[in-house]
Design a protein that fits this description.
Keywords: Membrane, Transmembrane, Transmembrane helix. By secondary structure, the protein is α+β, with helices and mostly antiparallel strands. It is built from six helices and 16 strands. A hairpin with a 1-residue loop joins strand 8 and strand 9. It is elongated, with a radius of gyration of 39 Å.
Amino acid sequence: MRLYIIDATITLVNKSTKGTIHFLLLLTIAFIAFAGIGYWAYKNGQIKLTPTQEPTVVSPTPDPTADWETYDNPLYKYSFKYPVDMTLTDYNEGNFRGIQLTLIGPTQKASGRTQTSLAEGAMIKTLLIPALDAQEEAESTRHKELNVPEGDASPDVSQTKEIVIDGEVAYQYTAKGMGNVKVTYIPIDGNTLRFAGYYDGFDGKQIRKYEELVDQILSTFKFTDGNQSNDKVEPEVYEAFKSKQRVSVLVDLKNTPLELKNTKDLDSLKKEVSLVQDNVLSGLDPSEYSITYKYEGLSVLALQITESALEKLNSNPLVEGVGTSIKLKVDDNFEPIE
C-alpha cells in the first residue's frame, strides 16, 4: 500500500511540472506572435507613434504701422498715421482746409499719368467743416452721391452706418462706381472732420489691397490733447486755446523754412510768431484767439478766433476779409529774420 501511494505521488508531481513547462512555452510563443504582429503593423503604418511635442512659442503680432509717419493736428486735436511713401499736400475746398495723402500704384506711376484721376492706389482727403452736425452732413453728402446727371452710371452707395473712432461715434458710407470712396464724418468739438478714403486698382485683388490700406489708416485715428510733441516743433510753440471758436484763419510766414530741422529754425519761428502777434494780433485779447505753427508742406500760422475778433481783424490793413473766413497776409512791414 505504501509503495502505491509513493508511486502515485511521484506520478502527480511529474504531471504538474510538465503542465508548467507547457504553459511557459505557450506564453513565449504568444509573445513572439504579438511582437511580430506589432512590428508588421508599425512598418505598414497601422500604428503611429506620437512624438513628444515641443511647447508652442507665441510671438507677438508685429504692428504694420510701427514705421509709419504721424500726421498731428494740434489745432483740432487729432492725429493719425500713414505710410511713409504717401505724399502729403494741403487740400482746400472753398474756405475749408485740410490735407491730402496720395499713393500712386506702380503701374499707373510707370505710365506717367500721375496727374490724372486715381486708377491704381489710395488717397486720403480730410476737410474740417466748422459748426456742422456729423450725422446730418453724412446723410446730406450721401444723397448727393446718388444724384448723378442723366445718362451717367449711378454709383453703388451704401447706407450710412455708425462706427466707433477712438471711442467716439462717427458716421460712414461707401460709394462704388467710377472709382471707390469710403467717407467718414467724425465729430470734433462741435465741428465735423470729413475723412474721405479713395481707392482703386486694375483688378479685384488690387482694389481690396488699397481698400484695406484706407481702413488701416483710419484705424490709427486718435483724439489728442492738442499739445503733441514731434520732431519738428516743440510743444512750447503751441499756446493755450481756452474757448470755443468757429473761424479758422492762416497767417503766411515769409522767413521761416518749410520744415523746422534744428534749434536755429525754431528760434526763427518764435521770432516771427512774436512779430505776427505784435503787428497783426496786438488788438485782440488773448482769450479771442489761439495760434499754432502749421508745418505740413507750408509755413503758416494756423489760428482759431472768436466771432468778436473777426471785426477787429477786418479793420487791420494786413487782413483780407472773406465772409466769416479771413486770410491774414504778412507784407513788407515785417522785418526780415536774420
